[in-house]
Every structure is written in structure tokens, then in C-alpha cells.
Write a structure and sequence with these properties.
The protein has 667 residues and is an alpha+beta fold. It contains 12 helices and 36 strands.
Length: 667
């Protein structure tokens, strides 16, 4: 099947209509940093159930707008200013309402709630041309959503289902909300032990999972449609607890990711602390809510995510983030044929599935890849045509996007490490380039193939950028993940410097001109590169990084109702200790090793960070100051852990590159 590609740009047209976007800047040899640090010009593109309408968010600076258009002619149906709110998602609730999810960082001292990221929902009713905040009209309710929203088609039409907190009654309940009126009807009482609810295709609760921190117990409850929940299965889970993942292949089944050696005949492994190992979580089961029967689902490789049908919400496929990009696999033959057609049409452009209509005939695809800053496309399978909806970074033309290469090298102990090398725009034969090591967060996360705004911004200034998926990263199997346990500041760190040495050996990087940069765990890696494994680097930039492991564990222990929470146990295992007062943490904490800092260090941190408190960077700055070591500390006003604001993201780029160019010039 062949597609025609039309050059219309609906996002620009709508942005002009809302007076939010200025005209595009003319191409220059080197793009300004603002072009890389800006928030994507278009985000969260979603096609309506019928395939006749599109909803998305346009962005100019920090100002956002929700836009809804007709697919056929691009006509604007409605638009709503979102302002500088942090938009996290957009979903259709039927054909006539759109839910936008935003978040804000707040603390509520009256209820003993420390600084937390709260999520709110705004229901945009197209028929009435009005917007309502979810729960704002309900007496005694906080206007926040406790958990992710769910959309279902009921006998009364499309409904939003989400948990909310009634502060008058002091309880959490699951509600069904009419998108046209905003009225919320309580479906079932809940509590803060509830992790996940699963509803049938028509909005009936059929499964629930809970986790009891005190007992370290994970429990699955199941029910036939219309019946009361009953115990389905329970297990002791100090770490790596199972997960309830939505509907299965039929409306009477749910998916559970769990270790069941009693069903598979396999032997449960143990981790370094005597807990069940991560390898215990590589089994996906389909559970019949009527009979309670568990059936193991076999995949060629453990999926990174599951794909459910947009209307029935039944399992139809999965995706896996691989070394060269995202790979899709479908158990629904029709969906598989559709994606195969799209993959051929977008060959070489790293297509990703974003959204599709209920009949799967209208599809939103995001393209990207080497030399492409990304764009959203609307594919009409009936007319065999595709048109662009909008470009994510319209100022970054192909000549301003550096080539990204997938690489692999061998760590000192023989472990194979995969990663990506971003080259300066226009460079095809790299030789003795200055290098920036950009370490990812997590650490149980990973870098992926494709456009990365931070890496591209650095590369645009003449640097090669190494993004290594060091041991402990996700996506390479459980053994690779477990290889990172207890390796903070040790082999997880030398995996990065081994990459520097490999690139130098290949003649690609100049070993005398290397700096290390990162955020979150990557920020820790940058500080460890300046204090622990410092032979490879000339400077370090830490964004929201951990500097004192003991204080970090103590802070985590204070966040929940119990000091020995599952989160704390998780970090203990990754750091290789049993408790926060383990003396080995001293030798792994850059703030305790400030006297060893062998290079200039820059610290940047958002004041609204709820994941790694800003105190971690302040502690590091204080230690460096006492040790008389060169450093800079910049606090980002109003910024969270994820650099969600355009102005602070751009400031981070400008300040960090100023620092890098001063201490590791590219020429």
C-alpha cells in the first residue's frame, strides 16, 4: 500500500488562530539553544473514537493551548488556553469531550502532606463549549485525581472513571463521571492501599490489586461482572511486587505480571538481600475473573509495554524498546496488518504508534530518527494517505539535527554495554571530537534511539555525546538489571568511563576533552565522575542529582507511612546496603568526598523537585565550598524533577553549556 504525504501543518494554523505562536525563525547555520530547550511545539495528539476529530496541545514558550479540529478540513472546533500548567496527558471521553491531565507541586500542611505532585483533570465538553475541573463541583472533594483516569463505553455513553479523595469523610472512592454534566457517581469505596483497579469494557469493576506496606503483602481481588470482589491471590512481596496491568484478551480476564513458580515449575531466584530477584517478574499471566484460572502468556521477548484496543480496552499487542527503536507485536491479526502497512510506509523514520480510532482505520503516528527532530502524522488507511499534523521542533530542520549511531562496547569485566553516540550536525566522519558523557536517570531506565533534545543541544555546539545504557539499565533483561545492584559509584560508573576509553580508542573522541553530565541518577553519576571515577573527565554538571546516599535514604523513609517502605527497600538493594546507616555509603557519596573533587562542578536543581529534594544539591554545594573546590550552584525557581517548564529548561541548557564551553572548549 502506498501513501501520499501532504505538506499541511495543522498545528501552525491553529496556533495562529489562538494567537499563541510567532512566525518561524529563519534557518541559521547553528540553531539557538532556545530551539532545543523549548517544549515540543505540539504534544499529546489524539484522534477521536470516530476518527473525525483531533485533539492536541500546542506550545509556545510556557504557554499551552488545547486544540480540537475536524480531520476532514482542519476546521477549529474549540480551543482552550492551558497557560503554563504542566500538561501530562490528553484523552477523548467519547466523541464530544476531551480530558486533559495537568499537575502541580503543592504541600498541604493541614493534612500532613509534604511537597507532592498532584494531578488534576479538566473536562472539555465540545457540545457545550465549556470546561470543568474534575471533582470541583462535588461537595467535600479535593479536585485532584488519585491514580490514573480510565475511559469506558457504558450503556449510558462514554464515562470517565477515576479515584478521588473526600476530605470530609476522609476516604478514597472510585467514581464514574458524566463528561457532559461533570456529575460524579461513586462506584466503590477504595483506600490508599489500592494500587490498581480494572474495569470491564462497559465500566464494571472486575479486579483490584492492593499492597499492604506493613505486612509486605500484595493481593489480587477478582469478580465476575456485577458481583462482589473476592480474593484471587496473595503473596509476600517485600520487593518486586506483582502488577495488575489491565484487561486481557477477553472481557472476563485481566493481566498480572508476577512470579508463579507453582504454576510454571520454575525455581524462584533470590537477590542479594534474600528477596525474590527481578528475574521473578518476567512472567505475564492472564487471569480469568470468573474461574480464577491463571494462564501464562508467552512472548518472544518480555514486552516494555502492552497495547489495548481503543474501544474495548482488550489486549491486542505489545511493544518493546529495542536497541534500534521500538518494535511492535500484535496478537490481533487486523491490528498487525495495519501496523505492518504503516511500518513499510514510514521505513527508516522510526514510527511509533500514538493513537488510533475505534475502527483502527485512522492512526496517529510519530516519526523521528537520525536527522529528524520528530513529527506527528495522521494516517487514513481508507484513502491511503498521510498528512503531517505538526512538527515537535519546527525550528530544528534536518541540517540542525546531528546523526545518532547505535554503538556497543565491552566493559572492563567483559559485560557488553549498548548505547548511542550523537554527532555534531554535519559530521559524518568523527575524529578526535570533544566528548560529553550524558548519563540517564533511573537508574533502572534507559536511553533510546532517536531525537533527544538535550543530547542534540550539546551536539549542536560541536561535541560528540555518549549515552550509555550502563549495567542496571532496563530493557536488556533481568540479569543485566541485577548486575547493577550494589554498583552505584562502582561498575555502573566505570561502564561510563569504559565508554570514553572505547571512543578514544576508535579515534572518535579526544580523551583529553571529556566532561560528564546527567540528571537524577545521571546527576549522581556526574558527581561520582568528579569525585570517585574522575580520571576520564575535566568537568561535571549535575542536574537534580543525588549527592549524599544516606541522607537520600533517610528522606525516602520519611515520605511514606512506614520507614521501611518498599521504595526504601528498593533503593537499599540498588545501593547494595541493608539500611541507611551502612558505613559503605560514605565512600559512595560525592558530598562526603568533596575533598577528592578533581574538577569544576556545576549543580542545577529545581526548587519544586519531589523526587530528589533540592537539599541534595545544596549539601553538595556546601561541602564543595568548605573544601575550597570550584563549583557553581543554580536553583531553578518553580521547576520540578523533570524540567517541565520551558524557561527553566532553557536556562539549564544555557548555564550548563556556558560552563562546559569554559572548562572543555569544543575548539
Amino acid at each position: 500500500m502506498q501513501f501520499s504525504f501532504k505538506g499541511t501543518r495543522a498545528s501552525a494554523r491553529i496556533a495562529v488562530a489562538l494567537c499563541l505562536v510567532s512566525s518561524a525563525t529563519q534557518a541559521q547555520d547553528v540553531a539557538p539553544l532556545e530551539a532545543y530547550g523549548a517544549l515540543p511545539a505540539i504534544e499529546f495528539v489524539q484522534v477521536s473514537p470516530s476518527g473525525d476529530r483531533l485533539a492536541y496541545v500546542t506550545v509556545a514558550g510556557d504557554q499551552r493551548a488545547l486544540v480540537v479540529t475536524q480531520v476532514a478540513d482542519g476546521q477549529l472546533l474549540t480551543g482552550a488556553r492551558v497557560g503554563n500548567a504542566k500538561v501530562r496527558d490528553v484523552e477523548w471521553v467519547g466523541e464530544d469531550a476531551v480530558l486533559s491531565t495537568t499537575s502541580t507541586t503543592q504541600s498541604i500542611p493541614l493534612f500532613g502532606v509534604s511537597k507532592t505532585e498532584f494531578f488534576m483533570g479538566q473536562m472539555h465538553d465540545l457540545s457545550g463549549r465549556r470546561m470543568r475541573q474534575v471533582f470541583s463541583d462535588q461537595t467535600g472533594m479535593w479536585p485532584i485525581m488519585v491514580g490514573p483516569p480510565m475511559i469506558r463505553q457504558t450503556a449510558d455513553g462514554a464515562r470517565l472513571f477515576v479515584a478521588g479523595f473526600n476530605f470530609t469523610a476522609g476516604e478514597v472512592s472510585l467514581f464514574g463521571i458524566n463528561p457532559a454534566t461533570g456529575n460524579a457517581r461513586m462506584l466503590v469505596r477504595s483506600d490508599f492501599d489500592v494500587e490498581t483497579d480494572v474495569l470491564s469494557s462497559d465500566g464494571v469493576l472486575i479486579a483490584r490489586s492492593e499492597y499492604d506496606e506493613r505486612r509486605k503483602q500484595w493481593t489480587l481481588y477478582i469478580a465476575a461482572a456485577g458481583q462482589r470482589l473476592r480474593l484471587g491471590w496473595t503473596t509476600h512481596a517485600p520487593l518486586d511486587s506483582p502488577a495488575l496491568l489491565g484487561l486481557g484478551r477477553t472481557d472476563g480476564t485481566v493481566l498480572v505480571n508476577a512470579r508463579r513458580p507453582d504454576l510454571t515449575g520454575e525455581t524462584a531466584g533470590e537477590g542479594p538481600d534474600g528477596f525474590a530477584s527481578e528475574e521473578a517478574l518476567n512472567d505475564l499471566f492472564e487471569v480469568d475473573v470468573v474461574t480464577g484460572t491463571w494462564t501464562r502468556l508467552d512472548f518472544e521477548a518480555h514486552p516494555s509495554f502492552l497495547i489495548h484496543h481503543p474501544r474495548s480496552r482488550l489486549l491486542i499487542g505489545s511493544g518493546r524498546v529495542g536497541h534500534e527503536g521500538t518494535e511492535y507485536s500484535f496478537i490481533d491479526p487486523a491490528a498487525g496488518r495495519i501496523w505492518s502497512t504503516i511500518s513499510r510506509a514510514f521505513a527508516g523514520r522510526a514510527p511509533e504508534l500514538v493513537s488510533w480510532s475505534d475502527d483502527l482505520r485512522t492512526v496517529v503516528v510519530m516519526s523521528g530518527g537520525s536527522g529528524d527532530s520528530g513529527g506527528y502524522h495522521l494516517v487514513d488507511l481508507d484513502s491511503r494517505a498521510s498528512r503531517i499534523v505538526g512538527e515537535t521542533y519546527p525550528a530544528l530542520t534536518a541540517d540542525r539535527v546531528g546523526t545518532v549511531r547505535a554503538i556497543q562496547y565491552t566493559a572492563e569485566d567483559g559485560l557488553e554495554i549498548h548505547g548511542y553516540l550523537t554527532l555534531p550536525p554535519g559530521v559524518t566522519d568523527p575524529k578526535s571530537l570533544p566528548l560529553i558523557v550524558l548519563a540517564h536517570g533511573g537508574p533502572a531506565s534507559r536511553d533510546v534511539m532517536g531525537f533527544d533534545w538535550w543530547a542534540q543541544a550539546i551536539a549542536s555546539r560541536g561535541y560528540a555525546v555518549l549515552q550509555a545504557n550502563f549495567r542496571g539499565s532496563s530493557g536488556y533483561g533481568e540479569a543485566f538489571l541485577e548486575a547493577g545492584y550494589g554498583e552505584w559509584g562502582r561498575k555502573m560508573q566505570t561502564d561510563l568511563s569504559d565508554g570514553v576509553r572505547w571512543l578514544a580508542g576508535q579515534g572518535i573522541a579526544d580523551p583529553a576533552r571529556v566532561c560528564i553530565v546527567g540528571a537524577s541518577y545521571g546527576g549522581y553519576a556526574a558527581l561520582a565522575g568528579a569525585t570517585i571515577d574522575r580520571s576520564a573527565y575535566r568537568c561535571a554538571v549535575s542536574v537534580a542529582g543525588v549527592s549524599d546516599l544516606r541522607r537520600m535514604l533517610e528522606w525516602e523513609a520519611q515520605q511514606g507511612p512506614r520507614r521501611d517502605s518498599q521504595v526504601v527497600r528498593y533503593w537499599n538493594r540498588f545501593m547494595g546496603v541493608e539500611r541507611a546507616n551502612d558505613p559503605s555509603l560514605e565512600a559512595l557519596s560525592p558530598a562526603r568526598l568533596a575533598d577528592e573533587a578533581g574538577m569544576p562542578i556545576m549543580l542545577l536543581h529545581g526548587r519544586d523537585d519531589t523526587v530528589v529534594p533540592i537539599d541534595q544539591s545544596r549539601t553538595m554545594a556546601s561541602a564543595l565550598r568548605a573544601a575550597g573546590k570550584p563549583h557553581e550552584m543554580i536553583e531553578l525557581e518553580g521547576e520540578d524533577h523533570w524540567l517541565s517548564r520551558a524557561d527553566t529548561r532553557q536556562r539549564m541548557l544555557a548555564e550548563s553549556l556556558r560552563f562546559i564551553e569554559a572548562h572543555n572548549p569544543s575548539d
